[in-house]
Design brief:
40% helix, 3-stranded antiparallel beta sheet, single chain, Aspartate Aminotransferase, domain 1, binds pyridoxal-5'-phosphate, 2 domains, alpha/beta, Aspartate Aminotransferase, domain 2, 366 residues
C-alpha cells in the first residue's frame, strides 16, 4: 500500500538540494530544434579526443580490471610530484576535482559553519554547501566580473571554515593575482582552509605565478585543486588532484570513497603527464582560438571580462535565455545563466566558426 509520495525520508539538506544540471548536449538541441550536426560548447570540454598514449594506457589498464585500483594512487601521485616538483605527501587524487571539492566540504564544514565564495562562480559550491548544511556567504563579483578581494576579506568571521577561490573563475574566466590570493590566505589565518580551484590553470597567460610553487609552501592553510578534465581532455575518465600541506591532505583523504579513481583513469593521467608537451601544444591552440573569438566578438561591440580559461562569457542580462535558445536553433549549444550571461566553450576552429556565425546573426545586447 502506497501511503507516501515516495519511499524513504531524505535528510532535510538533501530535500532542499537542487540537482546538479550538466550542460545540455548536442543531441537534446537537435531533437528540440530539429537541427542537424549541433555542436556542444556548454561544458568547457576539450574538443580533441585523447592523445594516443592515453588511449593505449587505458586499454592496458582495462586488462587488469578484475583487480581493485590503487586506492591511494601511489604511482600517479609520485608522477604528479615529480612534474610539479613537490613531494608526493603534498598531493592527493580525486574523482575529478569535483570529487576533491566534495571531500573538502565534507572534511571541514559542519551545519552552521560558514563558507565564503564569490558569486557568480562554480555551481557545485552552493550544492556542496547545502549538502553539508554550511552557511553560504556569497560575495558578489565586481562590475568588471572579477572577485571582490576586499569584500571576501571583510566577509571572514570566526565561523568561517572554508574560502573558495576559483581562478580562472567559472563562468567569467577572470583570475586572481598572486598578491590577492596571499592577502586572502593571510587574512583567513591557519584555521580557515583557502581552496584555490584551478580547473582551468593550463589556459592562463604564460608567466602567471604558480601557487603550487609560490603559495602552498608559504601557507599551510591553502589547498590547490586541479583537474585533468579540461586541458588534458580526460573529462569522461574523472581525475583531479589537490596540492597542500601533508596534514590537510591526510584529513581530506579520510573521506574519500574507497577506490574512487579507477585504474583506467589513473593510467590515463600518468600517460597524459608523461606526454605533457603534446597536451600543452593543444592548449596553445585553444588559447589562440580564444583570442580569435574574443577579437571578433569585440569587433561586433561585445564587452567581455578579461578571461583566461577555455571559454568566453557574454553578459546578455535579461536576454540570456533568448540568446541561448536562438543559438541552439542555429546548432550551437551554450551554457546560459538566466538573467546574467552565457558561457561559450572554445571548441575546435570549425565549432568556433559556427558560434561566431550564429552570434553575428543575433547581434549584440548590452
Ligand atoms: C571551477 C571548476 N572547478 C572544478 C571543476 C570540476 O572539474 P572536474 O570534476 O571535471 O575535474 C569545474 C568543471 O567544470 C570547474 O569549472
Amino acid at each position: 500500500m502506497n501511503t507516501q509520495a515516495r519511499p524513504g525520508r531524505p535528510r532535510s539538506a538533501v530535500e532542499a538540494l537542487p540537482a546538479y544540471r550538466p550542460g545540455r548536449d548536442a543531441k537534446q538541441a537537435q531533437q528540440e530544434h530539429g537541427v542537424v550536426d549541433a555542436v556542444k560548447l556548454a561544458s568547457n570540454e576539450n574538443p580533441e579526443g585523447p592523445i594516443s598514449a592515453v588511449e593505449n594506457s587505458v586499454l592496458s589498464a582495462v586488462r587488469g580490471a578484475n583487480r581493485y585500483a590503487d586506492h591511494r594512487g601511489g604511482e600517479l601521485r609520485s608522477r604528479i610530484g615529480e612534474w610539479l616538483d613537490i613531494s608526493a605527501d603534498h598531493i592527493t587524487i580525486g574523482n575529478g576535482s569535483v570529487g576533491l571539492l566534495q571531500q573538502i566540504f565534507l572534511t571541514y564544514l559542519d551545519p552552521g559553519d560558514e563558507v565564503i565564495f564569490g558569486w557568480r562562480s562554480f555551481e557545485v559550491y552552493p550544492i556542496y554547501s547545502q549538502l553539508t548544511g554550511a552557511e553560504m556567504v556569497r560575495v558578489p563579483l565586481l562590475d568588471d566580473l572579477t572577485y571582490d578581494v576586499d569584500g571576501t576579506i571583510a566577509a571572514l568571521t570566526p565561523a568561517t571554515k572554508v574560502v573558495m577561490l576559483a581562478t580562472p573563475n567559472n563562468p567569467t574566466g577572470t583570475v586572481l593575482s598572486h598578491d590577492d590570493i596571499a592577502r586572502i590566505a593571510t587574512a583567513a589565518g591557519e584555521e580557515v582552509i583557502v581552496v584555490i580551484d584551478e580547473a582551468y590553470r593550463e589556459f592562463v597567460d604564460a608567466g602567471t605565478p604558480d601557487p603550487v610553487a609560490d603559495i602552498v609552501p608559504q601557507f599551510r592553510n591553502v589547498l590547490v585543486t586541479r583537474t585533468l578534465s579540461k586541458a588534458h581532455g580526460l573529462a569522461g575518465l574523472r581525475v583531479g588532484y589537490a596540492v597542500g600541506d601533508p596534514e590537510v591532505i591526510a584529513d581530506i583523504d579520510k573521506v574519500a570513497v574507497p577506490f574512487h579513481v579507477n585504474a583506467a583513469a589513473q593510467a590515463a593521467a600518468i600517460a597524459a603527464i608523461d606526454n605533457i608537451e603534446e597536451i600543452e601544444a593543444r592548449c596553445a591552440v585553444i588559447v589562440n582560438e580564444r583570442g580569435r573569438v574574443e577579437a571578433q566578438l569585440s569587433e561586433m561591440g561585445w564587452w567581455m571580462p578579461v578571461h583566461q580559461a577555455n571559454f568566453v562569457y557574454l553578459s546578455t542580462g535579461s536576454e540570456t535565455m533568448r540568446f541561448a535558445t536562438e543559438l541552439e536553433k542555429r546548432g550551437v549549444v551554450v551554457r546560459p545563466f538566466d538573467g546574467e550571461g552565457i558561457r561559450v566553450t572554445i571548441g575546435s576552429p570549425t565549432e568556433n566558426d559556427r558560434f561566431l556565425a550564429a552570434i553575428t546573426e543575433l547581434g549584440v545586447t548590452k
